[in-house]
Design goal:
Length: 203
């Protein structure tokens, strides 16, 4: 791994390079992204790139970490509300609303990157898997809180429901991206909410 900066100037330079790499990967894919284009967009010299990153794969590893943060940090406020049924509904509505704004384009950035490099690069796959694990844990923790407060039945399998819900999100996003139609995500999330609702004790 390239050198991790110890100064604020260095940290800013590294973040600028990673941000530029995210843009290039989003536009051209991981395989089509070149270090020269990343350097031109950052802007950063070739020596700077190799100061912070060993090679392209090392840079893609940083892009994977940044992609996780982009997707999950963007849901932080919504995750905080996943302690009630209404919070789950707001979270689902917000995901669908975002796809409506994007006209069904983009899909899930974590899944997109996983599909491009996950089978070839084990370290990158592991980082992206960690992103999904973090996402699922927010859902699972919210469900567990609802069990604790009596909104869901004591026998609710929170781990199973969380995995099922995240799978609905990912499947819905994939179909939305393919069809350019957010209705697919809405239907998938309605199915997830309907399943969660079968464990509710309050209405």
């Amino acid at each position: 791994m390239g050198e991790m900066p110890t100064t604020e100037k260095g940290r800013l330079a590294r973040r600028r390079i990673v941000s530029a790499a995210q843009e290039v990967v989003a536009e051209k894919g991981a395989l089509g992204a070149s270090l020269d284009e990343v350097g031109a967009r950052a802007p950063a010299s070739r020596s700077q790139l190799y100061h912070y990153f060993d090679d392209k794969n090392d840079l893609l590893l940083a892009v994977a970490e940044a992609t996780n943060d982009l997707v999950l940090d963007g849901q932080e406020d919504l995750f905080a509300g996943l302690i009630t049924w209404d919070g789950f509904v707001r979270w689902a509505d917000a995901l669908v609303s975002l796809q409506e704004q994007r006209q069904g384009q983009g899909g899930c950035p974590i899944a997109n990157l996983l599909g491009q490099v996950g089978e070839q690069h084990e370290d990158i796959r592991a980082v992206l898997t960690g992103g999904f694990d973090r996402w699922e844990s927010h859902i699972r923790d919210g469900l567990a809180h609802m069990v604790m407060t009596g909104e869901l039945r004591p026998d609710t399998d929170c781990a199973w429901l969380a995995t099922s819900t995240l799978a609905s999100v990912q499947g819905g996003l994939t179909l939305t991206q393919a069809r350019r139609d957010p209705t697919s995500l809405r239907r998938a999330l309605n199915g997830a909410l309907t399943l969660i609702a079968t464990f509710r004790l309050t209405t």
